[in-house]
């Protein structure tokens, strides 16, 4: 069983941006809506699915797509997502499993050409916005599938994988994950892979990495780097969050930091929307607003029966603990999403909250997606 977070989930001044986003929440008039351009909303780690569907025969358990999933994505205003595919953890052969999942998602995108668009470059993000489709960026959350072959970076890049996370929570052949007891930093092979990713215009993602591994990669990379989904360790001291030093160095090199909608944003069992805002505001203070965005680590469509999901969560958490990939801060009663930032209205709600803490329209538009788009223009 390949039990990544995505699969455990069933997969996982407010004038300009706020007025449009609030359309789904019926917060503004139709006449005002018509005068506004559609904002760019990019989820730098997320999914698209209807988690309420039963498993679809002859389809991977993590693939649960129907019209509701597409409709909810459009209602939310979503432009694009960094979709986790390929090997993360578990008994599968990493390379074969990753190639198979790429083929599966290529087929899905061909099957739904009116709803989905495969993203290879920054221009494709604009195209997805213009065509009212959801752009799908292929991303890895582990590089185990590279084996010991540096040439596989180019192979996967050619297949459309343009974002690669160096490590998951544990050690791999590139470096240490954030839950590794001893972070020994990037390996010699990891350093070679960073150079290959620079050469082939692959975004290096340092989410889940240990701090030394993260700092090594920042120092070695000749291109800007991303942390697609994280929180701020200065606010909540958990391994999945990043230190101010990591955040600052990412920004200084022209990089990008996405704040997630995850339980690691609070010391309480479950984080809230206010916690998301606190971490975004802190990241803005450390990095500058132009380097911050959102990587929710979740989808748009809500669980209809939340109580039923909470029971299933106990089993999912036990599987992750048994596999040794659970992070500190996870638990059998800890929701892997923000309960008051769920559903198609989640981005509209976030905009309203960000406007209340005095972020400007320009800053909010950047956080929603324009900052990540500008980041991709520097790399792709």
Tell me what you see in this structure.
The chain has helices spanning 5-8, 16-21, 30-34, 67-76, 94-111, 122-130, 152-158, 188-199, 211-220, 244-252, 273-287, 306-323, 346-356, 361-379; strands spanning 42-46, 80-84, 116-118, 134-140, 161-165, 203-205, 226-230, 256-259, 292-294. The longest helix is centred in the last third of the chain and has 19 residues, at 361-379. Strands 1, 2, 3, 4, 5 and 6 form a 6-stranded parallel β-sheet that branches. The chain is globular, with a radius of gyration of 19 Å. It is 40% helix and 11% strand. It is an alpha/beta fold and 380 residues long. The chain has one domain: Metal-dependent hydrolases (TIM Barrel).
Q: Quick recap of the structure?
A:
With 380 residues, this protein is an alpha/beta fold. It has a single domain (5-379), classed as Alpha-Beta Barrel (TIM Barrel). The protein has helices spanning 5-8, 16-21, 30-34, 67-76, 94-111, 122-130, 152-158, 188-199, 211-220, 244-252, 273-287, 306-323, 346-356, 361-379; strands at 42-46, 80-84, 116-118, 134-140, 161-165, 203-205, 226-230, 256-259, 292-294.
């Amino acid at each position: 069983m390949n039990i990544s977070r995505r699969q455990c989930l069933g997969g996982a001044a407010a004038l300009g941006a706020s007025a449009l986003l609030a359309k789904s929440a019926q917060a503004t008039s139709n006449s005002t809506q018509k005068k506004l351009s559609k904002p760019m909303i990019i989820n730098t780690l997320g999914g698209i699915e209807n988690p309420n569907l039963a498993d679809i025969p002859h389809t991977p358990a993590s693939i649960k797509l129907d019209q509701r999933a597409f409709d909810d994505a459009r209602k939310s205003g979503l432009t694009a997502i960094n979709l986790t595919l390929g090997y993360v953890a578990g008994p599968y052969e990493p390379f074969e499993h990753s190639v198979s999942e790429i083929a599966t998602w290529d087929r899905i995108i061909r099957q739904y050409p009116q709803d989905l668009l495969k993203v290879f470059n920054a221009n494709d993000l604009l195209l997805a916005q213009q065509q009212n489709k959801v752009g799908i960026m292929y991303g890895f959350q582990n590089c185990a599938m590279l084996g010991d072959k540096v040439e596989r970076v180019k192979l996967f890049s050619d297949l459309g994988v343009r974002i690669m996370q160096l490590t998951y929570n544990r050690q791999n052949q590139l470096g240490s994950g954030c839950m590794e007891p001893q972070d020994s930093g990037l390996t010699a092979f990891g350093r070679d892979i960073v150079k290959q990713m620079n050469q082939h215009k692959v975004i290096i993602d340092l989410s889940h990495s240990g701090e030394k591994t993260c700092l090594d990669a920042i120092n070695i990379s000749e291109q800007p780097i991303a942390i697609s989904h994280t929180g701020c360790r200065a606010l909540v001291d958990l391994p999945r969050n990043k230190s101010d030093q990591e955040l600052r160095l990412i920004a200084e090199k022209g990089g990008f930091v996405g704040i997630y909608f995850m339980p690691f944003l609070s010391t309480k069992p479950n984080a809230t929307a206010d916690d998301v805002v606190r971490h975004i505001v802190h990241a803005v203070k450390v990095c500058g607003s132009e380097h911050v965005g959102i990587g929710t680590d979740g989808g748009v469509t809500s669980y209809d029966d939340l109580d039923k999901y909470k029971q299933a969560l106990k089993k999912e958490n036990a599987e992750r603990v048994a596999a040794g990939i659970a992070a500190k801060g996870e638990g059998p009663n800890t929701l892997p999403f923000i309960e008051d930032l769920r559903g198609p209205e989640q981005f509209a709600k976030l905009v309203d909250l960000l406007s209340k803490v005095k972020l400007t329209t320009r800053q909010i538009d950047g956080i929603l997606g324009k900052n990540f788009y500008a980041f991709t223009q520097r790399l792709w």
